[in-house]
Amino acid sequence: MGLSSYLPTISTPARADLKPLPGTTPLTPLATLLPPLIYYLALLLLPPSPSHHHSSAIALLRNTLAILAGILFFRLPLRYYVPFSVGLTYQLALVGLYGGCRTLDCFFITPYLFHHIPRRIKYHHAPRHATPGPARGGDAESYFSLHFLQQGGVAVTETATTESGWPDGWKDRLSWALELELSMRGAGFTWTSADVRHTKETWRPRVRDRLHSIVMHVGPTLLVSWAVVRDIYVHYLAEGEGFDDLPWGVQAAMTAALGAFLMAAFSFGHSAFAILLSPLNPHPLSYFPPLYTAKVWEVQSVRGFWSYGWHRLFSRLFLVYGVWPGEWIERSLTGKEKVESADVGKIMGGFVSSAFVHSFAAHTVEGGWKGAFGEAWFFTENGVAVVVEEVVKMIVRRLRKESKSAKDNAGNLNRWYDGLVGRIWWICVLLYTGRNFARGWVGAGLVSEMAGY
Predict the structure, then answer these.
(1) Which of 35, 15, 320 is nearest to 191 (CA)?
(2) Average pLDDT of the residues in 50-63
(3) Distance between CA atoms of 397 and 413, rounded to whole angstroms?
(4) Is 117 helix (H, G, I), strand (E, B) or coil?
(5) In b/e form, how buried is each residue of 326-345, taking b as 16+ CB within 10 angstroms?
(6) Which of 25, 62, 100, 165 has the most crowded Cβ, counting Cβ within 10 A?
(7) Is the pLDDT of residue 160 over 60?
(8) pLDDT digits (tens, 9 = 90+) for 79-93
(9) How confident is the model at residue 198 (pLDDT cuts 50, 70, 90)?
(10) Using an 8 Å Cβ cutoff, are 89 and 112 in contact?
(11) What would you report as the CA-atom Rg of the chain, rounded to the nearest whole angstrom?
């Protein structure tokens, strides 16, 4: 009996608007399970053995498993697609590319170039006296700002301790490997703790806080943004109009609705997994730091949005494959020393790497690279916008320092209108450049699938 007989859902006819890569076939359970399973087996052998016996043989086996896992991850989006869903095919490409890059980083780049194997971080939370509410101050931002959580929960002071040793025994090693495989949520290891920002003085939401978030905030946001997307699709796009044929106001509404939908969807997934794993508390697997750390209406720059107003789940990937190469290129071209800032290379490297990752995913649902560069333009333009705003800030500060008004104002370089100008700037940039992202989603069939067509 063939494997296809066990795959009635995966083997269903492909959506008419799905354009998979030539030569790809419907995804199978075996192809889905093998990469993360082999990656996990390799992770079991990553920390040094206490006895150090047969270290060469173990290293050979570990690296062989890692290479195989990496190949299978990279192969996923180039060999398979999900016939009944454009969105899942897009996600499959992100998982395959992310998994392959993560495996390469974990087993080869970090250990051999930086001589570092990730160490586990244990978080301790001591209760502190604080009153949730409008006057609570900035320490509550990490959980109750843009994460759609109500102002409640337990106020805590967080301390982090890095383990000095390695897993002791196979039971601990099994847990260690699983924690590291799932560490994309940003907790638990020295190389991933920055994936999701969290502060020392923070709040730990209870299950009921997260449920309240889903029911009262995330759910309505998802519903309203989806309704806007569907309405635009039904009244314009379903009739055969292209995205560029839409009125500018409708394009902006579509772009904003897609952004709000994605933001709320990430928050829903984060809270849902936190609820499901809450019975494991205080095990590290139950720890979910905040996903967003700034309110939308408090963001005052494009850089502020991407640094604090959006999730950082891919930050390690962009750091290793974008930020570091970008900084190296800038220093090579300018002759800067290692201790000197290479901010332009850092910014553009991060955004260009993000551009490639998202365009790679888009090309798997566009049948090739043609039409898959909307995301690339979006992220590249945002990188340029960040560089421009940093240059403008530097010039404005210099002018204000030299002006008489600054001296009369006790050296305060801020102006009452700075926040207003900053908010108008970043919103206009996101809406204008985001049209490239929305255009790509319309062309790939993602919007029609969201609309239920």
Answers:
(1) 320
(2) 79
(3) 7
(4) coil
(5) bbeebbeeeeeeeeeebebb
(6) 100
(7) yes
(8) 999 999 999 999 999
(9) low
(10) no
(11) 24
Say what the pLDDT of residue 10 is.
55
Q: Of the candidates 232, 233, 227, which has an alpha carbon nearest to the alpha carbon of residue 264?
A: 227
Cα–Cα nearest to 344, from 308, 379, 385: 385
Question: Does the CA dihedral 134-139-145-149 come out positive or negative?
Answer: negative
Residues 6+ apart with CB under 8 A from 377: 355, 433, 436
Q: How many Å apart are CA 69 and CA 61, to the nearest integer?
A: 12
Calpha distance 346→328 (Å, rounded): 9
Identity of residue 119:
R
| CA–CA distance, 207 with 404 (Å, rounded to integer) | 54
Angle, nearest 10°, between helix axes 374-402 and 418-444?
A: 170
Closest alpha carbon to 133 in 191, 52, 203: 203
- Ranges of beta strands (E only) in 65-220 are 80-81, 121-127, 154-162, 201-204
Average pLDDT value for residue range 261-270? 93
Sign, CA torsion 392/398/402/403 = positive
Contact 301, 426 (CB under 8 A): yes
Of 56, 40, 310, which is closest to residue 182 (Cα–Cα)? 40
CA distances from 345 to 319, 324, 334, 387, 393 (A): 11, 8, 11, 10, 18
The predicted model scores a pTM of 0.87
Burial tier of 365 (Cβ tally within 10 Å: 0-12, 13-18, 19+): buried
Angle value at C-alpha 450, between 26 and 364, nearest 5 degrees? 35
**What are the tens digits of pLDDT across the range 206-222?**
888 889 889 988 999 99
Token pair, residue 132, equals 């949730």
Q: What 3-state DSSP class applies to 50?
A: coil
Closest to 104 in 3D by CA, of 72, 135, 134: 72
Q: Please give the backbone phi and psi of residue 311, each rounded to the nearest 5 degrees, phi first.
A: -70, 160
Tokens of 378: 């979006």
Direct distance between the N- and C-terminal alpha carbons of the chain, in angstroms, rounded to an integer: 34
Residue 305 CB partners (closer than 8 Å, separation 6+): 294, 299, 426, 430
Report the C-alpha gap between 214 and 266 in whole angstroms.
11
- The type of residue at 411 is G
